[in-house]
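Late entry, written up from scratch paper. The run itself happened at the end of the previous shift, but nothing got recorded in the book at the time, so transcribing now.
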Amino acid sequence: MREYYRIFKALLFFAVLLPPTIIFKKLKFPGYKVWPHLVHRSLCSALNVKVKTFNEPLEGPPTLFVSNHVSWLDILVLGQVINACFIAKKEMSGWPVLGYLSSLQRTIYVDRERRSEIAEQRKEMQERIHNGDNLILFPEGTTSDGGRMLPFKSSLFGVTETAMHLQPDEQGRIQELMVQPVTLVYKRINNMPTIRFNRPNVAWYGDMEMGPHLKRVLNLLKIEVEVHFHEPVSRNLFKTRKELSAYCERTIENRLIESLRGKNH
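Output as recorded:
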């Protein structure tokens, strides 16, 4: 019964919020970028995903948010707390519901198998940044089990190399691209701490199929997620993208380990 109730609740939210989201996006109505966040927040409510944030996302200068990646649920969680566009693998565009929601949020889809398109994809990211959009990057390139992290792919930070200096602002000041690491922690499931045994109920990794995993999530009582925003840093502080990648990986992983051990800041 819980599964059907949540499906009904999600469909109700869709019926109310999707039409204005689509219309406002097409018309580029003032504030249209906010509506997808309302949809994500509503879906988290339908799935009883409770999100707790620590510190705040940076507002003002164009920012690259860098996060670990655990599940398709990350899209809903980060989509409601960060005003930004996702950078995601191209396969995601074909996912039921989530692919459409991501497109509404103007996700940049990356096909890492076709090297001929890498330059064009990087150009699109740079144009988004120069136009004042924030981006969300998952540098692991895929999802982990939530109890550990996979090594970051420094090549995915290539977008920052030609976007280090942005266009002057209204006062003529040269802006810098900012980078803010973000740690996602799936803390509790059904009021119990996440451990290796129950973590696959929310973590979506390996060869897990979307349908069965979604059904499992729909039948959970409650999911508690922490989003830790770390101190933003200027891209110009790092000589290479490898240095930046290593810094973000170390910062995010340390907080993940601390939080899973019950230490929060």
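The two ends are 38 Å apart (CA to CA).
(Scratch paper discarded after transcription.)
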